[in-house]
Write a structure and sequence with these properties.
Blueprint lengths: L1 E5 L10 H10 L11 H8 L5 E4 L9 H9 L5 E5 L4 H8 L3 E6 L12 H8 L4 E4 L2 H13 L3 E4 L6 H4 L4 E4 L6 E6 L5 E9 L5 E2 L7 H7 L2 E9 L2 H6 L13 E4 L17 H10 L3 H13 L4 H7 L2 H13 L8
Parallel strand pairs: 2-3, 2-9, 3-4, 4-5, 9-11, 11-12
Antiparallel strand pairs: 1-7, 6-8, 7-8, 9-10
Helix pairs in contact: 3-4, 6-8
Length: 331
């Protein structure tokens, strides 16, 4: 295959599928109880220098509890997958958890605005970056899940993004057309929030899955947080609903409201007031430090954070918003 040109960005992860396969060959596939808590899962499975990916889309079905715990444990020097990343990026930037970054979508919280603190961190010069698009990142994850070193895509070509990426442009040996070659991405560790899981790691997701099914298959280690733990009998009663099988999973954590303040489809809507509060306090470094102390550093776990910001009453109100009813909403 003739390579026409290539980007100048750094390739943070080796795309060699045989090296990844050598790792997966040694990974246990035992049907064992993997139930633990977020504190222990983060401590055990996320190490300095790891490449970290986060599931979900924007502030939708993302593992907020894992992001908080990374900051609380003061993890540093990670490489982060900035793929459809919004409030998760905001949290991780607050702790300066990463210093290398694949950029597709970061800093912005969609229509809510830009994160002043995340923007300042990216402008500080402390983070080494490589640029992609959200689709290119999804293609990279898909290539890893397929067990190949790249996939050809018709994306980024003709833009400055491809120049700042680590992709290559090559001529198709069949048609002579040019394609961007997106290198496989095998994260060291990923965290995905799901609706239901059993203690072995069989997971159910309701609604769109984005790239999470491929991400689960591409990741060397996988932490699952679940709204609720269900029995293995329930999983076996309808195996077609299991979208992430147990043998891909290393840790299972039950975290009710684990995507708060983001949206969990069919469970609860996003807390727009609290997300606005994050964006507002970031404008004043002293106030933001107090905010982080109150909401992350000085709480023992994610449940305490949820209780601090309205607890069950707030969650019932957000559930009303998700289902467009008013049974529990404040008058």
């Amino acid at each position: 295959m003739e390579v026409i040109s290539q980007g100048t960005g750094p390739l943070f992860m080796d795309p060699d599928p045989d090296k990844a396969r050598a790792f997966f060959k040694e990974k246990s596939r035992a049907l064992s109880n993997k139930l633990t808590n977020v504190k222990d899962a983060v401590k055990k499975y996320i190490n300095e220098g790891d490449y970290l990916a986060i599931g979900g889309f924007g502030a939708i079905r993302f593992p907020s509890a894992v992001c908080h715990e990374l900051v609380r444990q003061k993890k540093k020097n990670l490489i982060f997958c900035g793929h459809t990343s919004t409030h998760d990026f905001q949290i991780l930037s607050a702790g300066k958890v990463f210093n290398k970054l694949d950029i597709a979508y970061i800093i912005g919280l969609e229509a809510r605005g830009l994160s002043p603190n995340a923007r300042a961190y990216m402008q500080s010069g402390e983070v080494e970056t490589c640029e992609w698009t959200n689709y290119a990142m999804a293609a990279r994850i898909k290539a890893a899940a397929m067990g190949v070193s790249f996939v050809p895509i018709r994306n980024m070509m003709g833009t400055d993004t491809v120049k700042q990426s680590a992709a290559k442009i090559a001529k198709c040996p069949f048609t002579g057309e040019n394609y961007v070659l997106a290198p496989a991405l095998y994260p060291d560790v990923s965290a995905i929030h799901v609706h239901e899981a059993d203690v072995y790691g069989n997971c159910r997701i309701r609604g769109i899955s984005i790239a999470d099914l491929e991400l689960a298959r591409a990741s060397k280690r996988l932490i699952i947080t679940a709204e609720r733990i269900i029995s293995n009998d329930e999983i076996r009663s309808d195996p077609t609903r299991t979208v992430i099988p147990f043998y891909l999973v290393d840790a299972v954590c039950e975290v009710p409201y684990g995507s708060y303040p983001g949206n969990m489809p069919y469970e609860y809507f996003s807390d727009e007031g609290h997300l606005r509060e994050w964006l507002t306090v970031e404008k004043d470094p002293d106030e933001f430090k107090k905010f982080l102390d109150k909401n992350i550093y000085n709480v023992s776990d994610f449940t305490e954070y949820v209780e601090l910001n309205g607890g069950i009453k707030k969650m019932q109100e957000l559930r009303d918003q998700e289902f467009l009813v008013t049974a529990n909403s404040s008058k």
